[in-house]
Amino acid sequence: MGDVSHLLKSHIQEGKPYNPTAILRLLYQERPEYARLMGNELPYGISPQARQAIIDEIDNAHLYPDSSYYELKQALSTYTGFPDTHIVVGNGSTQFIDALYYGFLNPGDAVLFAPPDYAPYRIRLDIYGGTPQLAPRSPPDYGWSVDHLIESVTPETKEIVIVSPNNPVGNCIPESELRRLLELDLLVVVDEAYYEFAGTTHKPLIHEYSNLIITRTLAKAFGFAGLRLGYAITNPGLAAYLTKVMHHFPVNRITAKAAIAALEDTAYLDFVIREIKKGREYLEAALNSLPNVKAYPSNTNFVLTKFSAPDASSYDITQQLIKAGIIVRDYTGKTGLDGQFVRITVGTQKQNETCVAAIKHVLSH
Ligand SMILES: Cc1ncc(COP(=O)(O)O)c(C=O)c1O
Q: Ligand 1 centre and the CA of 69: distance in Å?
């Protein structure tokens, strides 16, 4: 076999993979039984009705899905209150990150971000050769500074990405601030992956602004991280355009049926949200009671936690927690965060308590 390196794109060849191999090995091969408090997954599994829908659909697995996703969009329409003409479905909301780049960006275009936020937006932008523009938010509370964002806009800026409720901080952009961004002649993407845990949404603004696209996922509140289903809500013109941009069969038929059942199972969703909010309150209070620890108030299913003891490194804390069977997200070097941070997903109450006890133990040694 000859050398094919001249056929590759060097910026992709040189880029880092999203998940370091060591973490994947730990999670999926070495320690699959450890408490997974690193990825904002749901600890309770999917709705029992969704589970049954998967079993019922198995015998149709050899058939293509309906590529118009009629039934799925009807269910999402009932859930969101928007007609199906406003809805586009995808293989997780991550698929929209790509579609919003390859569908809209021309060479030389830039995308503006307010880090700290969800890193894949920049990792994927690099693949498409777009230019990132950063208007970081400031410590200590990482609130939204729309003045800073507006000042950072250049003639090259084509899109602004706002992750709200924010990952990793857990805060939401106020509507008045978002409106100021929507007044700009740019595509504004609001990632509401954690909407259900906040209970507030910016979706009514879709009726007023034709440049707003809201992306959502069933990976978080519905527990579909492994099944993969995301959707976008926007005006019918942009929805039709985005549908052309998407893959032809982005959602498999088993996931589609499971999603329809999950969206109808409001009792299960209510249970999940109630439990996650309880767990979040517990984690925030328990972590804030520890010296040199600050848990950020969260509208999500995770708690950003800052360690400020002189010798506390987030890397060391994360490694010590792994020894106690708990995997959290270490934010060493995270763009936009200043200090030692980890992000802890709200787990079962037992996992939350074990995690707090392990942190206490690590800090006292
Ligand atoms: C802000 C944000 N958007 C999108 C995603 C990915 O969602 P999905 O699993 O639907 O691709 C995540 C997952 O962590 C996230 O935090």
A: 21
